[in-house]
Amino acid sequence: MGLLANPTIPDEDCTLATCSLLQAHYQYLPSLAGNALYVAIFSILLLSQIFLGFKSKAWGFMIGMVAGIILEIVGYVGRIQMHSNPFIDKGFLSSLVTLTIAPAFLSASIYLCLARIVVTYGETISRIKPRTYTILFMSCDFVSLLLQAAGGAIAASSDTVKSTDLGVNIMIAGLSFQVVSLVLFIGLCCDFAWSVRKAPKRSLNQSSGALRESKKFKAFLICLGIATIAVFIRSVFRVAELSDGFHGKLANQEVTFMILEGAMIIIAVSAVTIMHPYFAFGGAWGEAAWSLRGKKGVEAGFGGKGSRESVESVEMK
């Protein structure tokens, strides 16, 4: 028979031997094996992203991915700490804050890809300029991250239930903004895909035809779509979970959390690791960038299998 809640012992002084899980942050004991497995998987993905980032010189993409993955690792280490003591604030708050904000960094990397895709197909068929896509979604991501980080900082440093709730509510606002941003991103991606589909071939970027028709580039687009949907599903889940409260049903179902939080992010990161921009663009990631001044650069050849094809590019200054 499990222990009953012990009101004579402060929660921070509780142990598994003296208090019930009803007094813990979660009403379950986080799985040691499951969370350790996630740490191992994210560690492998981290090393892979660093290696591919240096190979491709896709620095912005790499920074977002690496920052997000590191935060995921820190978060699941916090959950491992809670396995031995589910009452401590340190493990709970570190996992809460890092796992909440980590996908915002991953989203930033995903957003950076759209401008390159537009340049590859041709800027003239897009309703929006490549640099506008990037500025718009990076700004949205910054606002989302700022709200989530501010809420996390308030929750982590709070001494009262009221201030903790305030922090959580700000985090929910940030997550909700992230969901709205992802919906807009998916909508604009679909709109651009439709524009590409109905555009005459002569209006497409003629210099990147071989790249667009390559199996690797098409696989990259599919994997990018999978990653976007996975992050979206996870973000919707976290809004629902935090809105329900720490003692709500969703917050106390570890299997649901491990699938809709952890597994979704693993799927997202794995998708853009298996088909990293390096495999799709070769050495042309930088050449397919945009300039804040909108100044077009020289045509540059795409790498991969000795191809001499080139794409009209706008260089990042």
TrEMBL record:
<dbReference type="Pfam" id="PF04479">
    <property type="entry name" value="RTA1"/>
</dbReference>
<keyword id="KW-0472">Membrane</keyword>
<dbReference type="GO" id="GO:0000324">
    <property type="term" value="C:fungal-type vacuole"/>
</dbReference>
<feature type="transmembrane region" description="Helical">
    <location>
        <begin position="257"/>
        <end position="281"/>
    </location>
</feature>
<feature type="transmembrane region" description="Helical">
    <location>
        <begin position="36"/>
        <end position="54"/>
    </location>
</feature>
<dbReference type="GO" id="GO:0005886">
    <property type="term" value="C:plasma membrane"/>
</dbReference>
<feature type="transmembrane region" description="Helical">
    <location>
        <begin position="92"/>
        <end position="114"/>
    </location>
</feature>
<feature type="transmembrane region" description="Helical">
    <location>
        <begin position="168"/>
        <end position="196"/>
    </location>
</feature>
<keyword id="KW-0812">Transmembrane</keyword>
<feature type="transmembrane region" description="Helical">
    <location>
        <begin position="217"/>
        <end position="237"/>
    </location>
</feature>
<protein>
    <recommendedName>
        <fullName>RTA1-domain-containing protein</fullName>
    </recommendedName>
</protein>
<feature type="transmembrane region" description="Helical">
    <location>
        <begin position="135"/>
        <end position="156"/>
    </location>
</feature>
<feature type="transmembrane region" description="Helical">
    <location>
        <begin position="61"/>
        <end position="80"/>
    </location>
</feature>
<dbReference type="InterPro" id="IPR007568">
    <property type="entry name" value="RTA1"/>
</dbReference>
<keyword id="KW-1133">Transmembrane helix</keyword>
